[in-house]
Amino acid sequence: MIRQPDPKPDVMVRRDSIVAGLRKLLPETGLIAEPLRLKPYETDGLSAYRQVPLAVALPETTEQVAAVLRFCHQNGVRVVPRGAGTSLSGGALPMADAVVVGMMRMNQILDIDYPDRCAVVQAGVTNIGITNAVSADGFFYAPDPSSQLACMIGGNVNMNSGGAHCLKYGVTANNLLGLKIVTIDGEIIDIGGAYLDAAGYDWLGLLTGSEGMLAIVTEVTVRILRGPEGARAMLAAFKSNEIAGACVDSIISSGIIPVALEFMDRPAIHACEAFAHAGYPLDAEAMLIIEVEGSVEEQDRLLEQLSAICRNFDPISLKISQSAEESLAIWKGRKGAFGAVGRISPDYLCMDGTIPTSQLPHVLRRIQEMSDSYGLKVANIFHAGDGNLHPLIMFDANNPSSFHAAEEFGADILKLCVEVGGCLTGEHGVGVEKRDLMPVQFRPHELTQQRDIKSAFDPDWLLNPSKVFPLLDSETAVLPRAA
Amino acid sequence: MTTEDSIVAAVADAVRTREPLLIEGNGTKACMLRPVQAARSLSTSGLSGINLYAPKELIISAWAGTPLPEIEAALAEGGQHLIAEPPDLSGLLGSTGKPQTFGGIVATNLSGPRRVAWGAMRDHVMGVRAVTGRAEIIRSGGRVLKNVTGLDLCKLLTGSHGTLGVITEITLKVLPAPEATGTLVLPGLDAAAGVGVLSAALGSPYGVSGAAWLPAEAVGRVAGLAGVAGSATLIRIEEFAPSVAYRIGRLHDQFGVAGSVVLDTAASRSVWKDVGDVRPLVAAAEDAVWRVSVRPSAGAGVLDALRPLGVTGFLDWGGGLVWLAGPANTVTHTAVEAAATAAGGTWTLVRAPDALRGAVRVVPEEAAPLARITRQVKAAMDPAGVLNPGRMYAGL
Ligand SMILES: Cc1cc2nc3c(=O)[nH]c(=O)nc-3n(C[C@H](O)[C@H](O)[C@H](O)COP(=O)(O)OP(=O)(O)OC[C@H]3O[C@@H](n4cnc5c(N)ncnc54)[C@H](O)[C@@H]3O)c2cc1C
Ligand SMILES: Cc1cc2nc3c(=O)[nH]c(=O)nc-3n(C[C@H](O)[C@H](O)[C@H](O)COP(=O)(O)OP(=O)(O)OC[C@H]3O[C@@H](n4cnc5c(N)ncnc54)[C@H](O)[C@@H]3O)c2cc1C
Q1: B7 in helix, strand or coil?
Q2: Which fold does the domain A9-102 belong to in CATH?
């Protein structure tokens, strides 16, 4: 159950004139208001919640975004920015009285500058689209969320998305140089640019991860990096979560920071193997995927050192990939993990907390206990190097009580993450999903301080107003889960 | 002894009496930016000590007043280091006889040569505690490496020069210190040619972690470069020893020129420490010092544009970071501002006599809509304006 602020009555009664007003500001096909055509926008990656918006605007230029926002501001209309709608926390969930501003038509790559190692792209360019544009020249854009085929850079910026390789290359925030934004009153502002560390306050840092609450991002200047000479993965399987966790500690202590260090527990291994036939060891309780980079000799040396470390932990099996194809197969299982779990259970919630890595065995034990007591299966995937845990809770959407239990189970896991010194979300954002858990992590005055910062950008709370912070007003409508 | 509560009390008192505070660590960077108009000062230097060091979790947490060398020593013992390689600017800013503090280096977001590849201080601040101008202790982030819960006030506070909150505790991501370091030194290239090589090296698959160009007069100030004739173009690799040997070899094959030298680990560390600490900059005592950040390919042009005005400098970050020194007057200052702006970049007046830094902008003026947001965010964090008033912007 998600509470939404009541639709503003004065906006709802002016619907037709608002639609007509917006139509004038956009290209011919740039405004959607027919109920059937609004339907695709009613939800995002958190598909349990749905709400058809008032209208959808599809601007093609920064100026059109500015015109739409100015209009909405003048008319007191709420705005929900949207990229590809892959948010797993309901960050792009519409409101009944809101205009969704969809960025998909702003999909141009504006500049690629190899000597300065940066690219300027519009917010609707997909994450993989950036890498595809520069890969022929040996470059790539580093953050690689599993959703990278679909999700857009504007969404990545607003969620501060991560990926499997962020242990070495950092998350979105670490790979940005500049933004072009439009504020709710329609002002166009350039933040940073093709250079490092703009003087003044770190607006780039504050806007990154702001979940569409501060401004609409229309252009992004990203760092592009030259790829390594090569990369190779290995698999190590262990008899218990504790042992695999101790092995992760030992790897980090050795001074080797692999580019990726991924952990899967037994249910995740089984789900992924059934899906990808990657040769995952089915007798293991836990498995690590470890990837290193460099020349072939460098890869060999590092993989040999890593194998030696793993051998100290009585592994069930160790498998060093001998070729690019084998590495690909190893990754195929992991990257397809969500789809794989989807085959076992069509409905699942993908949770996303972070814990101090030393707490992994304890946390996995507690999650198993919760799984038993809720009677819901869970598979755990873990970015082991940085402590970002993704439990996938399986439930039955045809059974409302099963969904309700899954949500409670998820909330319990996130509370546990905070309890052991971690946080509610490592990369998927708060959205509506974790909004009401914010007081678990923050004290009331800390939330007030964050709200005040939002108010500094958006005094009337028109931009994505029902996300991230628990609602303050009592007059809220409950948005029931759609069948 | 200073406690977090005593800082809260001091800020509350400042709000009550409307007497603004100069926020300090050990005051090593008090002469950066604009002079603060405050009768009282509040120092974090008594709030010192490491609260948590978890090497396996790549995390260190310490009170803001902890001397930076103490943190570096603890990390070195654990075989780790500060990723952004923060500089010690006492050569430039004058020594107070006391070490800079952890809070000071975060509040100024100063990073060293490694920034070009591995990010700035702000990229590694995982958590902060701070006392706002409302005399409230707020926390943002935490002690884990990935965290997107709520607005990122860690980044907002980092580099805010004490104007939004008194940072009391910082949690930083750290990494294993590399086993070895090597530096390829190419003598005799002019700035544009040097930057061309640095761009190609940074665009190579070898993971270059330092890329600087020093003119001849700057080379003479770096002990580790004794014997290098003319300018020096420096390319650094930090890795396991065999990888350093291999990668430096490849870079040498591709970019080597007559007289190229390869520095070993010890010599490399000393040279890059000097570069980070801005030792190569030729700055007379009365000169002003600026830090300009532009796209790397524009760095040499900034140097060229300002040379006729008696401004000297050198390049780090592959050409993108331009350290400049020159006459401390408004004409020169305006020219530096114009050159940085023409190159599409940003700039900071790092050091100047009070008369100059009190009279001019010390960071670029923001466009009106952004300046409005700046005022509103300042008001949200420090409504009474008691924290370092005027440090970054006049009247704020
Ligand atoms: C199968 C799957 C795998 C995933 N894997 C990962 C993963 O590995 N790592 C990870 O971090 N996330 C992952 N995600 C989550 C999601 O893909 C990311 O959060 C992504 O960044 C969202 O991008 P989007 O374009 O879909 O944005 P949307 O979902 O449309 O929007 C996300 C948020 O950003 C706002 N927004 C979008 N565009 C703009 C803009 N231009 N200006 C202002 N605000 C804007 C929206 O209002 C919303 O709050 C995954 C999701 C799925 C479905
Ligand atoms: C300072 C502030 C903080 C907000 N915090 C949140 C939040 O944490 N989560 C969220 O989802 N939405 C928040 N909102 C947005 C607001 O609660 C919702 O959009 C709500 O539905 C407001 O409805 P309205 O615009 O119809 O109210 P209006 O009829 O426009 O507002 C009535 C009056 O109450 C004031 N007011 C309304 N809401 C708030 C509030 N929450 N706090 C303080 N004053 C208010 C208005 O300034 C106005 O004077 C905030 C708004 C403001 C101004």
Answers
A1: helix
A2: 3.30.43
Chain A residue at shortest CA distance from B110:
A197
Q: What is the CA radius of gyration of chain B?
A: 21
CATH 3.30.70.2740 fits A345-431, yes or no: yes
Residue B248 belongs to some domain of the structure:
yes
Determine which of A50-59, A400-409, B25-34, B37-46 has the lowest per-residue pLDDT on average: B25-34
Residues with CB under 6 A from ligand 1: A 44-45, 80-88, 91-92, 103, 123, 145-147, 151-152, 154-156, 158-159, 161-163, 211-212, 216-217, 338, 427-429, 464
Instruction: Tell me the residue range of the domain where B298 lies.
Output: 288-359
Residues B299 and B319: beta-carbon distance below 8 Å? yes
CB-CB neighbors (< 8 A) of B141 in chain A: 423
pTM of the model: 0.93
The alpha carbon of A86 and the centre of ligand 1 are apart by a number of angstroms equal to: 5
Query: What is the rounded distance in angstroms from the CA atom of residue A174 to the CA atom of residue A142?
Result: 10
Q: Is A461 on the interface with B (CB under 8 A)?
A: no
Other beta carbons within 10 Å of A28: 6
Supply φ then ψ for residue B306, to 5 degrees. Answer: -100, -10
Asked if CATH classification 3.30.70.3450 holds for the domain at A231-337, the reply, yes or no, is yes
d(CA A349, CA A410): 8
CA of A307 to the centre of ligand 1 (A): 36
A27 in contact with B at a CB cutoff of 8 Å? no
Q: CB-CB: which of B136, B154, B199 is closest to A445?
A: B136
pLDDT 10s digits, A303-318: 999 999 999 999 999 9
Question: Cα A44 vs. chain centroid, distance in angstroms?
Answer: 12
For residue A447 and ligand 2, the question of a CB distance below 6 A is answered with no
User: What's the pLDDT at A475?
Assistant: 47
Confidence of residue A483 (pLDDT cuts 50, 70, 90): very low
Say yes or no: CB of residue A442 within 6 Å of ligand 2. Answer: no
A 153-182 residues with CB below 8 A of B? 159-160, 162, 166, 170-171, 173-174
Could you report the predicted ipTM of this complex, rounded to two decimals?
Answer: 0.98
Atom of ligand 2 nearest to the CA of A475: 21
pLDDT tens-place string over residues B264-302:
999 999 999 999 999 999 999 999 999 999 999 999 999
Q: CA of B176: how far to CAs of A311, A441, B179, B209, B320, in Å? A: 22, 30, 9, 14, 26
The domain spanning residue B254 has which CATH number?
A: 3.30.70.2190
Query: Closest partner residue to B151 among A226, A355, A450, by Cβ?
Result: A450
Please report, for chain A, the start and end positions of each structural domain, with discontinuous segments joined by +. Answer: 9-102, 109-226, 231-337, 345-431, 437-478
